[in-house]
Amino acid sequence: TLANQTAVAIENARLFSMEFRRRHEAELLRHVFTEMRSDLDLKRVLESVLIFLNEVISYDSACVFLIEEDSLHIVSARGFPNVDKMIGQHYPIRNEPYFQEISKTGRQQCISNVPPNLHFNYLQSQIIQSWLGMPLIVHDVVIGILTLHRLKGPAFNHLQSTLVMGFANHAAIAIENAHLYEQERQQRHRA
Predict the structure, then answer these.
(1) Cβ atoms 128, 121 nearer than 8 A
(2) Mean pLDDT rounded to a whole number for the chain
(3) CA dihedral over 114, 119, 120, 123, signed as positive or negative
């Protein structure tokens, strides 16, 4: 019948659109991963992580934290009015339960609708609607945490969190490689 043919045509168009979007995302991720791996300057890698991430998924603000002993060290931030003041700040991980959970389990945390009483110290007074925290893992060790924030609009969904997880895995490797290169360079300079 005409109704069945129309339904099949609509479903085929939806599947084609979804496949096209997935291929585009895969191509974009491949390009981003290649670019991130090609740079060994730690400062540039840290800056590029959030720039490239914004090509993969839209966000209003984001941070990269590295874990140093029992604290979170902001090493890169984007989308905040006071980015220069944020970078370099340290926050005790024990005061941030979601960060504690990510660092212990190595699993992402997503808050679709951030309740008004939930406060992240590093955000200061910024009010967010959606929060996504991803572990940065190297050799099964959480070395840092990547956070994304949306002030309004749609919450982060499962597909987006999956994309960010893949991105975070590659970002962690790029950060670790740049960090190791920096250490090696410093050792050679001292010798």
Answers:
(1) no
(2) 84
(3) positive
Q: How far apart are CA 97 and CA 99, in angstroms?
A: 5
Report the C-alpha gap between 144 and 168 in whole angstroms. Answer: 10
Closest CA to 53 of 31, 75, 81, 84: 31
Kindly report the number of other CB atoms within 10 A of residue 9's CB atom: 10
Rg of the chain on CA atoms, in Å: 19
> Which residues in 130-155 are b (16+ Cβ under 10 Å) and which e?
bbbbbbbbbeeebbbbbbbbbeeeee
φ/ψ of residue 47, rounded to 5 = -70, -40
With contact defined as beta carbons under 8 Å apart, do 87 and 75 qualify?
A: yes
Q: What local confidence, expressed as pLDDT, does residue 19 receive?
A: 66
Distance in angstroms (rounded) separating the CA atoms of residues 70 and 115 = 26
Share of the chain above pLDDT 90, in %: 36
Predicted TM-score of the model (pTM): 0.79
